[in-house]
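Quick one: Transcriptional regulator from Paenibacillus elgii, structure tokens please.
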Amino acid sequence: MERQAIRTFNIPAEATLEVLGGKWKLLILCHLNCGPGPKRTSELKKAIPEITQKVLTQQLRELEEDGIIIRTVYNEVPPKVVYELSELGLSLKSILDQLDEWGEQYIHQREWKSSCSECSQNA
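--- reply ---
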């Protein structure tokens, strides 16, 4: 699954959707954005229980290929692998924060509940 080296986009938002589009990538990024420090794959899987392990791994690889996240492997037994936003990924922080704030207001307006206590503490 190799990405094209040169692409032409009709509008800049199309490039954004190319990188962040789909159901899972934005959720992964929001979880990496909220809470302290890098996250292990198991932490992300626990935070997004509906995602399969295969899809989570695939989405993490694509985000790494696009330079949005950094994957760090520690030389331990068993190996420890963590993910965090890269410098480019951190440039999305204000957008991710705004999406979180809007979602929080929407949930409140609809009188629904959110199970993300970690994110609402950081808002």
